[in-house]
Amino acid sequence: MNDDDFGELSVVPGCEVKIVGDGDEVVPRGTPGEICVRSAMVFSEYVGNPEATKQAKTATGWFRLGDIGVMDESGKVKVLGRKKDFIKRATLKISPLQIEKVILGHADVSDAVVFGVPDQQLHEEICACVILKAANNDRGLEVRLAELEAWCSEQFPPEADGLSLKPRYMLLVKTFPSGNTGKVDRRAMRDLAMQKLGISE
């Protein structure tokens, strides 16, 4: 998933940056939140779409990027991913990219997409759709999936809430649906996974 890799945000002179929580409050350094910027260089409005402008910009001129990031003590901002892609499990916001990066480290995995699916108790649970590399031995898909799940159990120890970042659901697929830009359509992949798992909104 190299086209979804994120890095650091370069802050240019004359541009203010802050990281905010769900209530638009500034969060402590090192805490993930939505990245907001304010500058004379930021556009003033979406032409002909006041509702979109209202959602993207605050009354004091801050523009919500729609990205989740963290700011370190020196003021550098690391982008963690798109806000709409984050998994909301209980009180945590989980970056699917960090889980995908680990899964892609398995020798049998060709590609992986991680997203949240509805869960009655936790709001969302973690689901991974995985494309395996071509097999060079007689191991069946079920065996290879079981080996991958066991490996993930070792890679994802329990978090602060006592839960692991190991995907609750792991599905093997042959391809990922893509959008007009050629990137993976996470929403379509989520819908397909929910159908396979028998999960509804």
From TrEMBL:
Signal peptide (from-to): none
UniProt-listed InterPro entries: AMP-bd_C, AMP-bd_C_sf, ANL_N_sf
Gene3D superfamilies: 3.30.300.30, N-terminal domain of ligase-like
Domain of life where this protein originates: Eukaryota
Limits of the AMP-binding enzyme C-terminal domain: 98-183
Pfam families: AMP-binding_C (PF13193)
Name of the protein this chain belongs to: AMP-binding enzyme C-terminal domain-containing protein
Species assigned in the record: Nematostella vectensis
